[in-house]
Batch of 4 targets.
Target 1
Amino acid sequence: MAPATDPSTPRAARPSPRALARLLPLLRPYRARLAVAFVFLVVAAAAGLVFPGVLRYLLDAAFEQRDAEALDRIALGLLGVFAVQALANYVQVFLLSSSVERIVATLRERTFAHLIRLSPAFFTDRRTGELTSRLSSDLALLQSLLSTWVSELSRQVLFLVGGVIMLFVSNPTLTLTTLAVVPIVVGAALTFGRALRKASTTVQDRVAEAMGTADEAFGAIRTVQSFTREAHETERFAHLLRDLVEVAVSRAQTRALFFSVVGFVAFGAVVAVLWQGGQQVLDGGLTAGTLVAFLFYALFVAAAVGSLATLFGNFQEAAGAATRVFELLDTEPTVQEPAHPVSLPRPVRGAVTFEDVRFRYQPDYPESVRGISLDLAPGEVVALVGRSGAGKTTLAGLLPRFWDVSGGRITLDGVDIRELSFETLRGAIGIVPQEPVLFSGSIRDNIAYARPDASDDDVRRAASAAHALEFIERLPDGFATRVGERGVKLSGGQRQRIAIARVFLKDPAVVILDEATSSLDTESERYVEQALEELLEGRTTLLIAHRLSTVRRADRVVVLDEGRVVEEGSHEVLLAQQDGLYARLHSL
């Protein structure tokens, strides 16, 4: 029975700006660099604010005083101001951008590290494409926020405050005309900002859904192509993209309307200032240079207000992204590490006991395992047999604590497995699945995955024990041969022997074997059977069996039905019970 949705998985949270405040601890290691960047940002902004004032004197020198020497000096002074501004901009952009790259990398690493430690139940409810989208697109939004938003916010606030001060110094009457548009722009920002935040969250959700579908299709590419369902998958992806485009266009419409309103109001204010200032020039109360300088300051203020309104919209979008990222980080694993783990007696003997074990995937689901008690002596091979859905795989998954028992307990060498750390418990258990999973590195990397510090000789011995050395040495690059994604360049039997070699290198006391030969051809099965014979020697083994050859390898056969033990004994004894479930399954 497949695990159902984990009830503890949090529902999607509403986007909240408070989520961005949780980024602050990540900034602390870089506060010195960020402080220096802010100082240079202030210098660059100050240089920008100096420009209109210098421009005023330059224009007056040219048009009012007609002083060529003064014009030369002022022009050189302007070049100096721009040089200082360029240097300050370089320093602050470099310091800020390099710090942000490290901050986002840290957040990405923490998110991945948290996700990969969550219980398997979490991944039954989330597609991997959705999770990788969170790691990429949502964190890219946050990176944009930190690298440009913070810098631009600071810059535009400085321009706004400095510009308003210079406006009042230059001409209080014209200043009041300029500032009259600010409430309108702020109101538009608040109104459109909420709509943008909601629309942006929807867009990101649609992106995650589309990427999840693509990832699913790529992961099952052979199945897709074998059923010639390429057109269907393309249409399914295209349908999701159409939904994405629809909500993205709606967001673009909102954003375009927002920019249009703000732009019209801002430049309308510029027209009003030009008209009113022109009247004062005609009356002789204002020089042309002063009017131009005032106009520049007014443009600075208008641009700052417009930019702040835009940044507010970006802030709302980033708040949605941060909320989704921290939603993942706040997800608690359903299977927890013990607060004070105990140690196993050394050496690990591999004695496993199931004591009245019960388990259900959800509180409102029927029990998959119903009061099973079972002892596995050190070195004993026990086969689990039963119909599909009898609880075999579920019981095997409880031993390494992929799920926790709902009742009863499981012990390893007399210690409750819930008192052991994951490293201790799972380090003592080796798993050979029916469909082995290989990573897209080399053969050596895949074998050494069990023990990264293993020497080449250790890896070679493990491959030899798994009867994998024959085919590895025939490959052009030997152990350096890359296996492709999920081991696609190797046959099923070769992948299975690599998986067995990995367990040999791990050298566990307990082995869980999920019918490793059921999908292999006769020749591959012979090699794998030989490897398994050596692997199980002296190790406690829980064997999920479907085939006669596998069952005969077991010292004892346990027959499960509807989550209970209904028969137990050797293959011969159970086969002799003609009216028993095992005999009926065997005859089938």
Target 2
Amino acid sequence: MFRRLLSSSHSVRRALPFALPAVLVVGGVLVPLGYLLLRAFQAEPDQLVDLVWRMRTLRLLGNTLGLAGGVLALSTALALPLAWLTTRAALPGRRLITLLGVLPLAVPGYVMAYVLLAATGTTGTLAETLGLVVPRLSGYPGALLALSLYTFPYLFLNLRTALLGLDPSLEEAARSLGASRWQTFVRVTLPQLRPAYYAGALLVGLHVLGDFGVVSLMRFETFSYALYLQYNASYDRIYAAWLALMLLALTAGALLLEARLLRGLLLHRAGAGTRRHGRRVDLGAWRGAAYGFVALLLAVAVVLPVVTVGYWMSTAGAAIDWADVGASLWHSVSASAPAAVVAGALAVPLAYLSVRQPSPWSRGLERIAYFGYATPPLAFALALVVFSLQTAPVLYQTLLLLIVAYALHFLAEAMGPVRSALYQAPPRIEEAARSLGRSPLQAFFAVTFPLLRRGLLVSVAFVFLSAMKELPLTLLLAPIGFEALALGAWGYSNEAMFGQAAPYALALIAFSALFVGLLLVQETDPQRVKEVMSAETPVPVPG
């Protein structure tokens, strides 16, 4: 009993230096949301019923769920065939197709919306260059296509990783029992893809629920768009607070649904033996159709954005103020770089507690960090606005508040690579350092921290590039006169000034391509692919 108490006290002492940053994260994520709740319940009972059950709220709910369902269906229709072609088909150039299938991640959603608006219509890129007049996309169809083209790579990467890890013996057994190839795929292969599909679908759903840039440009009113309009147009922010809480409720519902679907799901091997790679399918006469599908998808998701941005830049000419573009680039970097460093610094103690000191409270701290990521950006920004105005008005619309918002929101992205590096760092060397008289903190920095540098650099790069692309947080929290690249691309596109928006969109694509480059580098190592995806899909299954 004494030894157990002594061991427990040692664990507490080791964890104490890492607890303070964890407490700061809890306060940064939960306290503003608490203020949002308090603001929402300032409404009188009659006013509360009117706010929640008005017809506009029901219409917003239908629009939001309809868009999320449509994007998920279209993303599945794009990602599943592409994942199968790159893993199961005897198709020359599979590796190149895989790499090209990730490239749409380099085009942020609101930039994709700008591209679709600028490419269609009687004066769009397609009409001016090819003579092809396509009705200008807007509303639900435009939002559906823009979000699907942006999010399908997340689903593609999850499904592809799952297909590579499946044991072909089950499919071979089904074929030996007389099942056709299609029947085997539907009855045997698809059920085994459920965990990967749920993870990818959750990420797609969270993107759609939290999206503001695409729906605002396409003029399709969802909870996020209505939240921004209500915040800007009304001095009474109670309804805006309720819209934020409704958006949070949808996000929580998506998380709980995924946890419910995965509960009790076991798909691993139960017998002895080693896993083999199955034979690739010869497509025969369908090879041309497969290449056509890939070519069409890449033409719309990759070639069209590049050509459209280039075309509108050439037409704008002298109308582009390059000094403003340079200033916007500097503003974006000046906020994103410190936020990335802060997020990396906060990720280290949280990941350390999760890996080295696993307990209910350390897992709870980790979940709270993930909750900050899962919270829709506009709702998170509004919570910080309410909190800062009520407690520290001097922070409102300052660069410091924007940096803190970036760091807290993208903290979960930083935790993935750091946590993976900690799992690979042997704890015995830290114990040896403590046995030589080092304090827990000295031992950590002397022997463990150097082993985390690679993971920490990846974490900082992820957060930096995510913050560079972030629109909703920047829109609500940016200081006066702060013009980031995201604001420039969205603002000019919102006014249909496509030529002036082009250089901002091009800069965002270039910076986003760095993120895609990180993914492509990891493609050579399947284990590193899993680590990268754990950083980009940082919402754990509640359990």
Target 3
Amino acid sequence: MKSILFVAMFLAAQTAHAGMFDKMIAAAAKKMAPAGPTTDSLKDVVITGGIERNLPPAELGTINQSLFSGWKTGGDLISFLVSKKGGSGYYKIDGTFSVDGKPVEYLALANYTLITDEKSSPRKIEIVTTTGEKASFTIAPNKNKLKMVSINGEKKNITLDLTKDVTIELDGNIPDGTMLKVAMAVNQVGIKSLIDVCYLRSGSKIVVPAAAFRNLNFTPAGGALFNFKKSFLAVGFESLETAAVLSETLPSFQYTSVYSDGKMVEVKTEPEFNYGLTAKGTDKPADGEISYDFFKPNAARSRPAGQLKKIGLLSFAIGGKTFDEKSVITQDEVMHNGDNRKTKTTTVTFPKQSDEAWDAVLEKMYPELVEAVQTELGAPVLPVEAVSQTAAYKSIEALATPDTNTDANFSRAYKGTKLLATQGGSQALGYGINAPNQKIMNEAGADALMTVKLDFQIEQEGDYGVMVPKLTFELEGKTNGTNTNTKYYTGTVTGKGVPSENIGLKISYGEEKGVMDGGTTKNDKVYHTAGTITPEELEKIVRRSDLLAEFRKGLKEIHDKEKANTDYVTYWDLQN
């Protein structure tokens, strides 16, 4: 299975060749990895990690095997990260971290990791800081066990054609209806890792469709940068369990418990990867060129739109830069012959608008945006309050970008929502199926969260200043398994700025005389001064109708392309 280690998360989109090259990479990674800051207090830490049982054979040669000494085929791997509660980054405990009484060495890339012989009983973890703070907890190995009997009827010397379905026979304690995870070793950019293939329902015989191999949970590099040499196919159980912590300062947390088994395989025919779907186009309405660019990731990272039943609004905001100044040296020969150095400085200014003016733009755009989404995707958008009033949403409001309105920039959010990043925030708030966004969807009864931002960038366009509008859109889905975030679609719509005599534009020509002469002269030319922007002119500058028309066109095109690709439904039906 893909390791629960930080290294696996850190290198999740990478894979590699085995042997000496792996060892060189691992050694370099250990040497170059920055050491984390130390802490002697447990009040500002978050613990994540878990236990993985029945480790793959040492001959496989993954990056994890190179990073950690003492690899044990069939053994257990226990690994925990100590991260900052109030932000990103990792801590080294100023004190001791032990498993069943054995001190665990700190590694910059993986924090606290220990490989042991196979053991079915719970493990006790203890943390003691130099200031005397103590915490202890137990973790339980996954109670389910299985054995891979055969692949396509073969028990050894297995060769695979990954353009065809693969049948796996299993034996062991496999509860009916349990979700199993299939993973495979892939070499990419000099690193070998176990990559998620898919999740599917349990059975003594499971069939992994070719579509799953086309949609591995990673971003393949081009051409010869990836391959399946000396590969390994694994099937296993993965669950999240709660660790009860005995400490006043460290709360209980969830950990990952994994058990898997697999076989070495030789891949004769590689899959033709689904790199994701794109929809791009450009149109030229009356107010100038406008273009769209939409993307849907591969099936491992993107659910089919047919799963959309209710969409919640995570964030809808408007913002941008209203002042810009650029200087360019047009002649610089001072050091050669004493000629003058000339500079051109362009200043563009958009008149400050009231909060009410920007709010009015959002008020007009939102219902039209919702109508486009509902029509093209066939799923209703919930009332704004269904999301913004959830406890999970309120838990991340402090991480939002605050509303602001100055002479240089502005930012406004719609109807009590906040300008939020889709996966922002501290790891202390949870990750994967415990991340805030996942909790928001669960509390609001939504299948997806929509984030929309209308940005403006002020620029010079000939003898005028313009505000270039850009609409960004993201529709996030629930996780695939315990950790993989999914997105239904992402997209941008960008329009050409509409020239306005009320946007200030000034160009200054500065001249620094030769070194022997000294002195500076200046020549300013004012093309336009910042005037009053009426509501009618603001609407023309925003280009709301053009943006939404192009948005609808791009969303329909990417959705139609998805419907024509059967991989998404095939992949996700495995979990039913």
Target 4
Amino acid sequence: MVAIRSLTTILTYVIGLCGMIPLFPWLTTFPRVILVAGLLSGLWQDRRGSWPMKSWMQNVAIVPVFLFYALQFSRANPIQPVISVLAIMLAVRLSGEKSVRHSLQIFALSMFCLASSSLFDLSPVFLIYLGLLLFMVALALVLLTFQNQDYAMTVSMPDLKRILFSALLMPILAVPLLLFFFPIMPRTQLPLWHFLNPPVSRTTGYSDTVEPGSQSSIAESRTLAFRAEMPRQALGQLYWRGTVFNRTDGIKWTRIDRIPSEQPVFTGQTVMQVIFPEPSAVRTLIALDRPASLALQRVKRSPDGVFELIGRAERRLSYTASSQSNGSIAQRNSINRLFYLQLPPRLPDRITALASEIVRAGKDDSTRVAYLENYFRSGGYRYSTRDLATGVRALEQFLFEKKQGHCEFFASSFALLLRAAGVPCRLVGGYLGGEFNQMGGYYLVTDDKAHVWVEAYIEGSGWVRIDPSSFATNAGDVWMPPGSRSLRLRITLAVDSFNHAWNRSVIAYDFEQQITIVRHVGSLLQGANPAKMLRSSAPYFAGCLLLAGLLFAARRASLFRSREQRILNRFLRMVEEKFDISTGMSGKGLFELASSADNSHVSEFVAIYAGALYHDRRLTDEEYLRLRQILRFLKDGKSKIP
């Protein structure tokens, strides 16, 4: 026998943990300590069966905590006080006696705590905790109903199985409704809590300026920047375009909005991508270099191939981009050369001298670019994020003294020399590379892949991508992909593919996607031919009807048997199982079976059943229920029937 109260107590703690664990990382120290103390105190008291602290004492203890956090509540900090109070209230209830009323309060507080954790992280793990919580609550509510009737109730294992099955059936039956309503229910463009507490924005791997020399070292971050669903590409084509820097003061490169008009000519193979950026305050939209179009509402497109989101950028979104990734874009019209040749009033003497040398070495743009590329290749420059030159002379020190730096040093100095030599150019900021997830069919790009390169304008070719960092002596060690993948990396990519599927199907599913689906279905219906659809689907309907007919014919006998026949069949199977007596081909009658079994349960069953059968009448409801009870006792192996 199993005690109902013991089961409800265990379930109450499991439900409490489902609410505690997801919220715990986002709490401050004090609520964390109270949660752990409340849980341990409750376990210790439940084991002793004694609860010194009464319910009214717990309620009084919560009041000052509530007042303390109520004073901290403000428009700038509305979330942290609320979740702290919820966590402490849950801890207090877990530390007390688990009566029916207190258990219901724990269930409600756990659900509120789990919902609060979604304000900080709405990952697939949340769905796991939510599903577990809903199943456990449904089960606990049924058990609490029995406990409320009899505090010390115990049930047998077979009865407990039936209770558990009935309890779990409720949330299982709700799943189809959930799947049905999810695609059609309206939803907002932003989560409602964003209006109260804007999420902490991720700092991207690149910024709105390029300023080499501002730091002596660069720390690399593996924070996810975006995912891109697309076919696998060669490493040399994985340049992800973000923004363009077109103005320099000799040290810092920035972007100004007064950009001359351009008319790019996109030719060659087109690469389609579906981009899923992580939520960020940056409005620049990333796409494979160079994007020709980008399918998203409220987007500003600049002539130099930069796309920016109009409005708030913190929400999770996705968009489709079409790109030509061959590294050069021709122009129908002439560019504004003066705009892309602007220089600061004064350059260091050594940089000016090197620029004059480039001019003498080449008479046109292409030969000057080739000369500078060869200069970097043979100059002994190394790619490094440590021991960098700093200060106003950082670029000069990089070119002529230290000869080591990261992509900002390479690109900034290369572009500055090109402009000084009369070659129009600009910097492009974005990302380079990414880890291809074969399971999900997408690239995973992290912040440490942030990169800056150069676009130079060459007459007859247009804008040509040049990556000065690739001229470093150790460029192969920096960018060459590893030959094999470690087990840890494969596991990480497998988990990430699950996260991506969750974000793609659930988190990023919004009103715009609903409209897209409706339009797609509408276009299919408009072009549909009903007669043709009926003809094409007729074989499938016929097959389904035939299969249903065969199943119906196979089970017809069992479907239309009377309850007398059904309960007799159960009895015969049980006699064979319990007493090893053949009931099929032996030809024994019911009384002969009872004599062979020599069992009081079998004898009573035969007496009741034969009393109806041999008098040519059906079983009464009382007789039928008694026969079912006898079968249960036979199955459980009990010797006496009450």
